[in-house]
Amino acid sequence: MPAPLSGLRILVLEDEALIALDVDQLCRDHGAEDVILAANLREAQLAAMPYDVAIIDVMLDGEPTLDFARSIQAAGVPFVFASGYDQLDELFAGFPDVRLVSKPYSGEDLVEAVTASIRKLSASADG
Predict the structure, then answer these.
(1) GO MF annotations for this entry (predicted)?
(2) For the residues 5-17, what does the mean pLDDT come to?
(3) Which of 78, 80, 85, 127 has the smallest number of Cβ neighbours within 10 A?
(4) pLDDT digits (tens, 9 = 90+) for 71-112
(5) Which pLDDT belongs to residue 125?
């Protein structure tokens, strides 16, 4: 059975360096081909496309990432939010089909959410 993230190129938008490094290793341990780490929106916007999926923290040093999320959603890139900001329903109202994995999260929960986001996008593209 192939690893759940086998061959994927994943963007991780996370400003906490230790969390970013943990997510990088988690993704690689689950088969990711490449992981692109971005600590701020500028780095994320400069990240070489295409990537297959993204893991996005909702706030980076107090700056919301929702516009970036909308832009990759419009480009057809699946993503999940991984954030400690899980009580802000108004933030997530514009993303009803996007999964939020609340910090602190288990690695298995994050990997499952990422694979589910890819399956969901594939199913909607096929249907």
Answers:
(1) DNA binding
(2) 96
(3) 127
(4) 999 999 999 999 887 666 667 778 888 999 988 889 999 999
(5) 64
Which CATH number is 46's domain given?
3.40.50.2300
Domain count, the chain: 1
Taking the CA atoms of the chain, what radius of gyration do you get in angstroms?
13
4 is a domain residue:
no
pLDDT of 1 over the 90 cut:
no
Q: Which residues of 87-113 are buried (b: 16+ CB within 10 A; e: fewer)?
A: eeeebbeebeebbbbebebeeeebbeb
2 occurs within a structural domain: no
pTM over 0.90: yes
| 56 neighbors 65 (Cβ within 8 angstroms) | yes
In a domain, 1, yes or no: no
Q: How many whole angstroms separate alpha carbon 103 and alpha carbon 123?
A: 28
CA dihedral 62→68→73→76, nearest 10 degrees, is -140
